[in-house]
Amino acid sequence: MTDAVTLLTSDHRMVEELFSEVEGRPDPDPGVVHQIVRAGSGHDAVEKEFLYPTVRQRLETGGELADHGTTEHDEVARTLVAVDKAEAGSDELTTALHTLIGLVRTHVGEEESQIFPALRTAMSTAELADLGETLATAKQSAPTRPHPLAPSGALGAMVAGALSAPLDKVRDIVEGRP
Length: 178
Ligand SMILES: [Fe+2]
Ligand SMILES: [Fe+2]
What we know:
The chain is mostly helical and 178 residues long. The protein has helices at residues 4-22, 30-58, 62-85, 91-122, 125-140, 154-174. 79% of the residues lie in helices and 0% in strands.
């Protein structure tokens, strides 16, 4: 079973690989852009729903770390909306992708250097495995489009996620997205 930190870290590497395919390109592949929107939206939702409430509860400075992290998530989600809305090949898309990549790299750096090591210290192997299982399950029904206005409380986010995932999938099908 994959523990929570390993699962989230491998998500980070996957997104970084997608970034390397579009970074600095004047005409990024729309398929890769859609994959970035999908992966980023899902990761955003499951971390807000399950990682940050755990951070808040279990780490000594968890309140501060969670406030800071969720503020960054809101910025990332708003930027994902801009990426999702921008026309293929437009300047808006280039700008939004550039902003997104910068925001995500900073945020991921903070998670991996501060939050993940602190969770490994504060939580047992079994607890990290349980959280990993919760995250893996949540990813199956996570939204595929960004929802920056979703309520940030755990229950609210879960309800918003449950409602938005099927609607996102219908929109993806209508728009012919993978
Ligand atoms: Fe995050
Ligand atoms: Fe993350």
